[in-house]
Structures are given as C-alpha cells and as structure tokens.
Specification:
Layout (H helix, E strand, L loop, with lengths): L12 H33 L6 H23 L2 H21 L1 H14 L9 H16 L4 H9 L1 H25 L4 H11 L7 H7 L4 H27 L7 H25 L1 H7 L3 H19 L1 H32 L4 H12 L3 H11 L7 H22 L7
Helix pairs in contact: 4-13, 4-17, 5-11, 5-13, 5-16, 6-10, 7-8, 7-10, 7-14, 7-15, 8-17, 9-10, 9-15, 9-17, 10-11, 10-15, 11-12, 13-17, 14-15, 14-17, 16-17
C-alpha cells in the first residue's frame, strides 16, 4: 500500500509560518480600515456642540488675567517706581512749560479776589522766595561759576543791562509819563533787581543758550546783594525814603544764604541733589505762581486805581529792555543764540523780590505797585519772545 508521502506536497515549516503571518497582517489592516471608516461616519453624523468654544475662550481669558496678575505681582518695586517717576517727569514738564499761563491766571485771581491769597503773609512770602533760591542753588556747581568767567562778554553786557540800563530806563519812563514819585521809585526798583528764574525756561523755548542763561541769572542774582542796595541809596534815596541797609540784609537772607546752602549741599551730597533735582521745576513754578498771586492781591485796589497808564509803562520797561539787550549783543558781534539769551535775561526780572523789598524797606505803600504789575508783564513779555523765536530758526550756529 502506497504511503501518503508521495501524494502530499512537501511544505517546509519556514514557509508555513510566513503565510500565516501575512494572513494575520491582512486581517489587522482590514480591521483598522473599518474602524477608521466608522469614526469618520460618526463625525459626519454627530452634531457639533456650539457651547464648547465660548467655554474654551472664557478659560483662555481667565488664564490671561491670571498671567497678568502674576506678572504684576512678580514685577519688582524698582520697575514700578521707574514707571511712576517717568510719568511724574512728563507731567512736571507740561506743568513747567505752561508757567506763563499759570502766572497770568494767578494774577487775575489775585486781582479779582484778593482774599484767596490773604493767608500768604510776609513771612510766608519771604520763605517762598528762599525756597525758590534754594531750588536754584542745588542745581549749581562751582563749574557754573567758572563758566561765567569763560564768557565774560555776554555776561558783562547782561549785568550792565540789569543794573545800569533798566534802572535808568525805569526812571526815564516814570518821568516821561509824569507818574507820582512813589510809582517812579517802584519802577526804578523793578529795574534794579536781579533776573528772574523763569528766564531759563523761556531761553530754552526760544532756542537760546540755556547754560549761558543759567550763568547770567546766577551773576545778576548774586549781584543784587550789593547792586540793589547801592541803587536804592544813590538813585531812590532822592525820591522816597529807603532803608538801604535793610535792602542789603534782605538780599543776603533771601538770595545769598539759600544759594550758598544749595551749592554746598550739591558739592557734599551730589547724589542726593540729583534725586531731588527733578522736583525743583515743580517747586519753583509753584512758588513763583503763589508769589505772583500774593503780590497782585496785596496791591489789587492800587493797580485798579492806576489804570492802563501804569500797565503801558511797565510793559514798555520790559519790552525796551529786552530789545536793548538783544541789539547790544548784535552790535558787539555776538551770535543770534547769545543775543536771544541776553534779551530774555534783560527783560525778565525777579519782580516778586521787588515786592518783598518794597514791602519791608520802603515807607510808601505805592512803591510796591509797579513790582506787582511787573510780575505779570514780565512773564507775558518773556514768554512772547520765546514763542516768536521758537519759530525762527538760528542760522549758521
């Protein structure tokens, strides 16, 4: 009997395992294709839940708020202080640039309602001027005084305009308009006081030399210690009674001492002064505005009684003085920038200081009236020159 071995094909074990593996792979692939097709079919037939997206958006918003809160909490105090300081600098800059507007507004308020400034007595007035001078002193160094010696020409012209031209011009205008002796004395007093601190701001706006402006203001401010009492004794003593020694003492107390203290503090603690210096414009403008309002309020009725005649005379004093300072520099062959600076420095006076001197050391009440009128016209003339020159470029400098 034949065996079955000859009738069956001979299959090796390796071939049979390979065939079985291929069948399993085909079955697995078919199952995967069916499962994918089933899921696609379910996606087409299942409706979209529209409420899911707003929930996700709300969650993202909440995460954003949480992130902002965490960032704010993690920000250092120095960063917060820096942002606040930068904001203060911007506000302070705008506030200082609007100085002429604040001056006119304070004068108008003092003229319309003098009781608004009744609290600002003579002692407060003196302290306010001292603070103003001290705020100027801490911005000065010994190098500023050395720089004054490096430009003797313009500084000398401004000094002569301040203490020779302006007092004589005040006397001439008073005589020409036939004003009363106390008013004439007040005009001479306005002409014989130092330059105003607001001139530095107006010089900056007018494209002038700000560093030279600071030197000029410093020189006339220090000069008022001996020049104003001298002029008061020589020129005003023949018109009205005056306490020249008292004028000198007040000048040293209100001007010299605060400036010396400021310069010494700047020399010994410069880092502290650099930190305090950004406050100086705000303090200076605020003090000046209050002093202007108080000056006008103290002479409100006398200013009204004087009428427009005194207003015109005081306006001409500042206008002619500024023009003379400008053309004297041009005649001496100085540049446009220096001429503008000298004009503003000559036209602008520390009229509030004149009010204080007239109140303390002149017997007649009317002597202070021209200084009270001057605080307004000084700011108007200085800011007007600054605005006009701002739009006229300086050529060749």
């Amino acid at each position: 009997m034949p065996t079955t071995k000859g009738f069956l094909p001979s299959v090796s074990p390796r071939c049979s395992v390979s065939a079985l593996g291929q069948r399993h792979l085909r079955r697995a692939r078919d199952k995967a294709v069916l499962a994918l097709a089933s899921r696609r079919s379910e996606r087409r037939t299942t409706p979209i839940n529209n409420n899911s997206r707003p929930v996700l958006l709300a969650e993202k918003q909440q995460e954003g708020v949480r992130g902002s809160t965490l960032r704010a909490a993690n920000s250092s105090p120095k960063e917060t202080e820096s942002r606040l300081f930068q904001t203060y600098l911007k506000v302070s800059n705008v506030f200082a640039n609007l100085f002429p507007i604040w001056t006119v507004a304070a004068a108008a308020a003092g003229l319309a309602n003098p009781s608004l400034f009744s609290w600002l007595t003579t002692s407060y007035f003196t302290a306010g001027l001292g603070i103003l001078m001290f705020s100027m002193g801490i911005t000065l160094t010994l190098q500023d005084f050395k720089r004054a010696l490096s430009k003797p020409g313009p500084v000398t012209i401004n000094f002569l305009c301040c203490y020779v031209l302006m007092p004589l011009l005040g006397l001439a205008l008073g005589k020409a308009f036939a004003l009363s002796p106390p008013i004439v004395a007040g005009l001479v007093l306005v002409g014989s006081i130092n330059g105003g601190q607001a001139s530095n701001l107006c010089t900056y706006i007018a494209r002038g030399d700000v560093a030279l402006s600071v030197v000029m203001t410093t020189s006339t401010t220090l000069g008022t210690i001996f020049m104003t009492p001298l002029i008061a004794k020589v020129l005003l003593g023949t018109i009205v009674p005056v306490d020249a020694v008292g004028v000198a003492v007040s000048a040293m107390q209100v001007v010299l001492l605060p400036i010396i203290l400021g310069v010494c503090l700047n020399s010994t603690a410069p880092k502290f002064c650099r930190q305090v210096e950004p406050l100086c414009p705000t303090i200076g403008v605020t003090s000046t505005v209050l002093l202007v309002g108080a000056s006008v309020a103290g002479c409100a009725q006398a200013i009204k009684n004087a009428g427009w005649g005194l207003q015109i005379v005081v306006m001409l004093l500042h206008l002619i003085g500024g023009a003379a300072g400008y053309w004297l520099c041009r005649i001496c062959k100085f540049g446009e920038t220096t001429s503008r600076t000298t004009a503003i420095e000559t036209a602008m006076k520390s009229s509030a200081f004149g009010v204080l001197l007239a109140t303390l050391h002149f017997g007649d009440y009317l002597v202070r009236v021209p200084s009270a009128v001057s605080v307004v016209w000084m700011a108007i003339m200085g800011s007007s020159m600054a605005v006009v020159w701002q739009f006229i470029p300086v050529k060749g400098e």
